[in-house]
Amino acid sequence: MASIIQTHFFEQPPCVCVDDFRITTAPTVAAMHQRFGTPSRIDTGETPAPAGHRNNQIHVYDELGITLNEHHHTRLLQLVTCWFATDDPHYRFTPHSNFTGQLQFENVTMPLGGDIRQFLGLSPFQLNCVLTGSWSYVNNEFAIFVNSRGRRLPSGRRSKVQSILSIDLFWPHDLWQEPVTI
Question: CA 41 to CA 177: how far, in whole Å?
Answer without folding.
Answer: 27
